[in-house]
Each structure stands twice: as C-alpha cells, then as structure tokens.
Design a protein that fits this description.
There is one protein chain. The chain is an alpha+beta fold. The protein folds into three domains: 2-133 and 312-333, Nucleotidyltransferase, domain 5; 142-176 and 247-308, ATPase, nucleotide binding domain (Nucleotidyltransferase, domain 5, 2-Layer Sandwich); 178-245, ATPase, substrate binding domain, subdomain 4 (Actin, Chain A, domain 4, Alpha-Beta Complex), CATH 3.90.640. The chain has eleven helices and 18 strands. The strands form five sheets. A five-stranded mixed sheet has the order 3-2-1-9-10, sandwiched between helices. A five-stranded mixed sheet has the order 13-12-11-17-18, with helices on both faces. Helix 2 (72-87) crosses helix 3 (107-119) and helix 7 (240-263) crosses helix 9. The longest helix is centred in the C-terminal third of the chain and has 24 residues, at 240-263. The two termini are 29 Å apart.
C-alpha cells in the first residue's frame, strides 16, 4: 500500500497534502525542546503558543531560516511529527514524499531536507522548487510551452519565477517576505512609540490592519507592548494609514525583484505573461491591496491563487498524482 504526500516545509508554516485526502496538516513551523535534555516538548501549534512564554529550561524555536534547515536535529523532529500525523492510520504503507525547497537552496541544504525526510520514515523522497510547486498548485499550465509567472511570498523568502515546459526560465529568490514585514512593523513601533512588541503582536497588526497602499478606508486597532524608557506595559492605538509606511518599504523590495525577473524574461514568454498575468501565492498574498500595487508597478494583470497558502503543498502532491506529465518538475530529473 503506497501513500503519496506533498509537504510545504515553510519558514512560518508546514502544510501537508495527501493524495485522496487533501490538506491533512497545517501548523506553524515551531519546535519546543528542553535545553538540558534535548527532549522535544511540543511541535506545531502547541509549540507556537510557547513562543516568548517558556521558562529558562525550555526553548521554542523555528528550525528553518530563509526556507532552509538551520537546525537539523530539530527539523528532523518536525518532519517526523508531520509525516506521522499524515500516515498514522497507515503505519505499514510505503510513503512517497515530494517536499519543497527554495529556488536558492544549495546542494547541501537540499540534501539536508532529503536526509531529514528519510529519517522520518519516508520510503522515497523527491524535491521540488517552491515556485514550481506553487505554480502547479495554483493550476498554472507549467508543462505547456507558454510563459507562466509565479510570485510565491512565504514567511522567510519570496520566490519569483517564469516557468515554461516544466522548467524555470528566469527566477529570483529574496529573503524579504512575511517575517520581514512583521519585523519592519515592530521596528517602526519601536522607533516611533519607544515600545517593543513581540513577533506575534507584529504579525497580528499586519493581519488586522496591514495594507500595501494608502488607498483604503482607515482602520485602527489597539495593541500592547513594553515601554523602552519605563520598562512597563503600555497600550497604544495605531492606524492602518501609518502602517503602510513600514509595509510598503518591504513590498517595494519584492516589486524590485519582480521587475528584475520581468527584465530578464525572453520576449515571447513575456508576451504570455502580459496576457495571462502574474499569479500571487503564499501567505503573503493575503496582504491587503498587494495585488493592486504589484499590478500598478509592473503594468501587468495580477491574480491571487485560490487558497494561496496551500498552493505549494497541493502542487507538491499533484506532481506524484500526475508523475508522467510533471516528472520534469522534480529536481532529480533536471
């Protein structure tokens, strides 16, 4: 009995897709362990709840940095957790896994992902670049002789690519994405209000009142932080209008990378992109007004994929379902 699984091993979230089941796991990429014994205490959602709240003996960390493994031991426990969660009802099945890696990942980093997945119990492991998996999951005809442009904005990286005939023609990967926007929000509040906030608060501000442009009806929200000068808790109300400044600084870096890919795209493929538009995927695609800003700056139509957060996992799983058509998308076959 065989089971085909696609895994989006993201900096912020890990999403698992199983053939015939759909998305079977979607949890934060966080692991909590005991510093003295090395024992894993919690993984996923339970571990994220511990971020910034653990006693000295327990540390909650994110084992991926920029989409690649930063701590092999913890990453191994992470993959083991998600893989077993997907196949717990089928302990004796032969599991084939397609797992995503950033376009910029080195051979050593790619091998680390494969080794960790094999160690977790997979029988066969294939790698696929995030932008390809995202494009496949978004329903783009990547195997056809036409230009498909995908912009996948994750937690740690933004992967941009023009794909044709199952191969990447032009691509770029930058370390500016969802986490960078959160950090920019926290830095802005620190400088303007002399307050420090945690990454969860910054992320919540982005989700609630984060916009890529000023073209919207103003929204306000209250948040809590720590006064730098007084060292005491403090509450503040902040406007969506002022949040545009730090967010737009990061968005502009993504737009510059998109323009760079466009400039290096062959004319024939660029004509296809002009007609079909740029596809936005990844959790960053949820940022309000982002599609309109990118469309205005690139002078191209921009679409947001259906359920953009799960595109990579769904695309990775679809490769095994349609292996004869999409085999060229796997890194081993290039």
């Amino acid at each position: 009995m065989a089971r085909d699984i696609g895994i989006d091993l993201g900096t912020a979230n890990t999403i698992v897709y199983m053939k015939g089941k759909g998305i079977v796991a979607n949890e934060p990429t966080v692991v909590a362990k005991n510093k003295k014994t090395g024992k894993i205490i919690a993984v996923g959602s339970e571990a994220k709840e511990m971020l910034g709240r653990t006693p000295g003996r327990i540390i909650a960390t994110k084992p991926l940095s920029g989409g690649v493994i930063a701590d092999y031991t913890i990453a191994n426990a992470l993959i083991d957790y998600f893989l077993n969660k997907a196949i717990k009802k089928y302990p004796f099945c032969k599991t084939r896994v397609v797992i995503s890696v950033p376009t910029c990942a080195s051979k050593v980093e790619r091998q680390a992902v494969k080794d960790a997945t094999y160690a977790a119990g997979a029988k066969s492991v294939f790698l696929i670049e995030e932008c390809k998996a995202s494009a496949i999951g978004a329903g783009m005809p990547v195997a056809s002789p036409v230009g498909n442009m995908i912009v996948d904005i994750g937690g740690g990286t933004t992967d941009i690519a023009v794909i044709s005939l199952g191969g990447i023609v032009v691509s770029r990967s930058i370390g500016v994405a969802g986490n960078s926007i959160d950090a920019a929000i926290a830095d802005y509040i620190k400088k303007k209000y002399n307050m420090t906030i945690g990454e969860r608060t910054a992320e919540n501000i982005k989700i609630q009142i984060g916009y890529a442009s000023i073209d919207h009806e103003e929204k306000k929200m209250s948040f809590s932080g720590m006064s730098i000068f007084e060292g005491l808790p403090q509450n503040k109300e902040i406007s969506s209008y002022e949040m545009v400044e730090p967010i737009r600084q990061q968005v502009n870096l993504i737009i510059d990378a998109i323009k760079s890919v466009i400039e290096n795209t062959p004319p024939e493929l660029l004509a296809d992109v002009m007609e079909d538009g740029i596809m936005l995927a990844g959790g960053g695609a949820y940022l309000k007004n982002l599609a309109q800003v990118i469309s205005s700056e690139s002078t191209m139509p921009v679409k947001i994929a259906q359920d953009p957060l799960t595109c990579v996992a769904r695309g990775a799983g679809k490769v095994l379902e349609e292996i004869k058509v999409l085999e060229s998308s796997l890194l081993e076959n290039q």
